[in-house]
Amino acid sequence: EVQLVQSGAEVKKPGESLKISCKGSGYSFTSYWIGWVRQMPGKGLEWMGIIYPGDSDTRYSPSFQGQVTISADKSISTAYLQWSSLKASDTAMYYCARLLERAPGYWGQGTLVTVSS
Amino acid sequence: DVVMTQSPLSLPVTLGQPASISCRSSQSLVYSDGNTYLNWFQQRPGQSPRRLIYKVSNRDSGVPDRFSGSGSGTDFTLKISRVEAEDVGVYYCMQGTHWPGTFGQGTKVEIK
Fold it and tell me: Of A49, A52, A94, B29, which has the fewest beta carbons less than 10 angstroms from its beta carbon?
């Protein structure tokens, strides 16, 4: 069974850094693209970027390029989303998702990030 | 980016009655391999999204057959043949043909 298990909720202050994680199991982690989706409070879904853990090929949505970094450690089947300097506008639920047929076929449970002074 | 436009944005439905959601893309979703990567997702309150339909009309594993997808090119439809209480939530279309993939605004389905 494919499972994506994300790290727990975070509360941070503006300007702080953060790295959240998504551990995949039940499939060959290096053989499928995995990505991140943002959902701001009460809003819709936005693709942030994707990574192919097999060779670390990474693609960012133009809206998120330069704002976040996506990475993966294939030795522990884990993908990451990180910020170097958080803003209040980064407050959102973040989902990781494994692609299947060019779209999120499997989803993690979500990580709530709250940025507040 | 490809713009996905859904209608209606709110859909009150009666239990047991059919429901239909429309999704239109700003450009053709036919990919170079001949497939059309149009998806439908359901997000129940407080839950992660779940994909229902991929490549226009293919149901994901475990999805009830009351859900069906159709369409081509730039116009697509999700139909629920008989709405059940567990179908309440927000439904999103999403294209995976062009990078970055883009979602529609969402259609909130509620019971009358």
Answer: A52
Residue B58 backbone dihedrals phi, psi, to 5 degrees: -95, 120
Provide the sign of the torsion angle of the four alpha carbons A92, B24, B56, A103, taken in this order: negative
Asked if B37's CB is within 8 angstroms of A105's CB, the reply is: no
Could you give the angle at the alpha carbon of A114 between the alpha carbons of A111 and A116, nearest 5°? 170
Contact map slice: A 46-75 vs B, CB within 8 A: 46-47, 49, 59, 61-63
Task: Give me the mean pLDDT over the A5-32 stretch.
Answer: 98
CA distance B96 to B102: 7
Summarised one tens digit per residue, pLDDT across range B92-112 is 999 999 999 999 999 999 999
